[in-house]
Specification:
The chain is of the alpha+beta class and 315 residues long. It has ten helices and 14 strands.
Length: 315
């Protein structure tokens, strides 16, 4: 229904002057994705504060609602109106972190947004809007995440960093040392013939294999852990790690497991969301930074909304 607003939209969505050109179409992946990144994605095992079924259902329902495909045109619209428009279209429970008297760091409601987006999900559209808020910065100053209680919040990372959790990642496979045997002994064929021609067939104690005398140098456990963590903190939200001068994320390795204390958006870029199908999660890089983008088909998204209602209704 290009050129027309959906009749089911609220009157508030009409007044902000945003042209909703289409509410149908395939879900396109984020343009942030690129060719693979040289870091394995271990399965996140939330050993501390594991979500219950209802919290997971809330997250899946919100994310499913944010999978709604839209096409919009914005020209100098207030950020508050744009956020309200997204909430009206998706019916998702969104929590913008606004700037106010108690919070000097936050989103400015009066910021004007100009943006054209064609056939993207509401989540992608929100990410594009947040990126527009800092056009002169090479860093993504604002993003979104889920809280431990299942709510969807977005705003400056400085505000999001207040909500952190600990997760354990199994990196034992990344620490496995597979040596490169490039020092195989030389094989002397003449010696084999000589031994075969000796009477008695014993061949004596002489061997046809000649040791070249080289040794295999194995790297220590700490060195391999350092390689993994260096790659992690230089590709996943580099500015947030304490080891890089940040204040939001820390890690510690114990017996092949990496314990990471960080906000949800950092965990998302490491391993995605274990409760969302991996086929709808794509890993890529942009300017050397790792990203995990989320998507879904409309049929799958609708199924998640219906199943979430059933879980919430359970006693």
């Amino acid at each position: 229904m290009a050129g027309r607003l959906d009749n089911r939209m609220s009157n508030r969505a009409r007044t902000i002057g945003i042209a909703l050109l289409s509410l149908a179409g395939a879900v396109a992946p984020l343009t942030l994705l690129a060719a693979g990144v040289a870091i394995a994605t271990p399965t996140a095992s939330a050993q501390f504060g594991e979500d219950d079924a209802q919290t997971i259902a809330m997250k899946r329902e919100t994310l499913a609602r944010m999978m709604k495909p839209i096409t919009v045109e914005l020209k100098d619209h207030r950020l508050e109106d744009v956020v309200r428009f997204i909430a009206d279209v998706t019916q998702a429970d969104l929590t913008p972190l606004w700037m106010d008297d108690r919070n000097p760091v936050g989103l400015d409601k009066e910021t004007l947004v100009t943006l054209n987006a064609k056939n993207v999900t509401a989540l992608q559209f929100l990410e594009m809007v947040l990126e527009k808020l800092n056009p002169d910065s090479t860093l993504d100053a604002s993003t979104w995440q889920f809280t431990n209680y299942g709510s969807f919040e977005f705003g400056p990372k400085e505000r999001l960093n207040k909500h952190r959790r600990v997760e354990m990642y199994d990196i034992a496979d990344l620490l496995m040392d597979v040596p490169d045997y490039d020092n195989a002994p030389d094989f002397d064929l003449n010696t084999v013939f000589q031994l075969g021609g000796q009477q008695g067939g014993g061949g004596g104690s002489q061997s046809p294999f000649q040791d070249n005398g080289s040794d295999i140098t194995r790297r220590t456990h700490d060195e391999k852990v350092q390689d993994v963590t260096d790659l992690l903190i230089t590709t996943v939200e580099p500015e947030q790690w304490v080891d890089n001068g940040g204040e939001a994320a820390t890690f510690r390795e114990i017996r092949g497991s990496l314990f990471i204390n960080a906000p949800d958006y950092v965990h998302r870029q490491i391993g995605g969301y274990p409760w969302w199908p991996s086929r709808y999660q794509r890993v890529g890089t942009k300017n050397g930074r790792r990203y995990v983008s989320l998507g879904a088909t409309p049929e799958f998204a609708n199924a998640q909304i219906e199943s979430a209602v059933d879980v919430k209704a359970a006693p």
